[in-house]
């Protein structure tokens, strides 16, 4: 049964590892966290800490030999790990969507962006769906949506393509959007534009957002709560303001020391060389 207090996403006791490894080795160990309706939760941790593996586990997009070994992933109370593939595929398109780091490799190179966007909408007339695509391309700040629909992925810059991918993720107005380092491949100005776009649409659509980054500076503006990952485990999970001011775990403190904060003196090692 749904209730106001029910989290949008609830991950508990999640272990992900190799199908064949004997004894079983896990890349993710006992992951627990939740996202409330409309909340932005950021996941941070250095490269290799398991952030993408976690996102792929939640979406059930892991490729062999990786597999989920144990645990539970619930979306609005519904257990996803037991669902037949077909139902999961439906949920992936409709109720949760993901935006990856490298937009170019996420699109089919030989198909127009329009045909790839249209493919994401399952119901409705062709005409209505086309209008919906145009509207969403416009919403994510792309000029000339009609032309965009006829373009191929290689014709767009990385920043523009990332916007198309966000539009694609939003087409069905999902309850949850997972963004896995969506700005890492982009330069700083484009990055700022994408972040503020995500923030705006997240508010407008009342979506839950799981925002993954290795950069605490990037997430500090966006997140309501922050989950810190290290070597496949969550070491700290706290309200953003609290975590940024009083990090409890030494690893979080270490990550914070790496972030130059405006108006504050730089950390010792940066001042010496900077
Ligand atoms: N398909 C795979 N086969 C073997 N190891 C993998 C595979 N995918 C990820 N890993 C390992 O899992 C760990 C976590 O990777 P990843 O989730 O990509 O980290 P992050 O996204 O935080 O950089 C890394 O040590 C990586 O080498
Ligand atoms: Mg990653």
TrEMBL record:
All copies of domain ABC transporter, residue ranges: 9-256
Main location: membrane
Keywords: ATP-binding, Cell inner membrane, Cell membrane, Membrane, Nucleotide-binding, Translocase, Transport
Subcellular location: Cell membrane
Domain of life: Bacteria
Family: Belongs to the ABC transporter superfamily.
PANTHER family (UniProt xref): ATPASE AAA-TYPE CORE DOMAIN-CONTAINING PROTEIN, OLIGOPEPTIDE TRANSPORT ATP-BINDING PROTEIN APPD
Name listed for the protein in its UniProt record: ABC transporter ATP-binding protein
Source organism (scientific name): Paenibacillus thalictri
């Amino acid at each position: 049964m749904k209730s106001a207090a029910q989290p949008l996403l609830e991950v508990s006791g999640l272990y992900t590892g190799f199908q064949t490894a004997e004894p079983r080795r896990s890349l993710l160990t006992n992951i627990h966290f939740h996202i409330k309706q409309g909340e932005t939760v950021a996941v941070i941790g250095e490269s290799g800490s398991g952030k993408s593996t976690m996102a792929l586990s939640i979406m059930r997009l892991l490729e062999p030999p990786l597999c989920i070994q144990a645990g539970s992933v619930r979306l609005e109370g519904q257990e996803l790990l037991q669902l037949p593939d077909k139902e999961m595929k439906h949920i992936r398109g409709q109720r949760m969507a993901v935006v990856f780091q490298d937009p170019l490799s996420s699109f089919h190179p030989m198909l127009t962006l329009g045909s790839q966007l249209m493919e994401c909408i399952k119901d409705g007339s062709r005409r209505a769906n086309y209008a919906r695509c145009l509207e969403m391309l416009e919403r994510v700040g792309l000029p000339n949506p009609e032309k965009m629909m006829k373009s191929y992925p290689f014709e767009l810059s990385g920043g523009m393509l990332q916007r198309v991918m966000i539009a694609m993720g939003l087409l069905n107005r999902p309850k949850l959007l997972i963004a896995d380092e969506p700005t890492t491949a982009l330069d700083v100005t484009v990055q700022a534009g994408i972040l503020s776009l995500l923030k705006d649409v997240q508010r407008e659509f009342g979506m839950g957002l799981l925002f993954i980054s290795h950069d605490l500076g990037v997430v500090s503006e966006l997140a309501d709560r922050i989950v810190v990952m290290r070597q496949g485990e969550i070491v700290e999970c706290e309200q953003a303001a609290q975590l940024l001011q009083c990090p409890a775990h030494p690893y979080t403190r270490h990550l914070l020391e790496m972030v130059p904060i405006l108006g504050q003196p730089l950390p010792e090692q940066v001042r010496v060389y900077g």
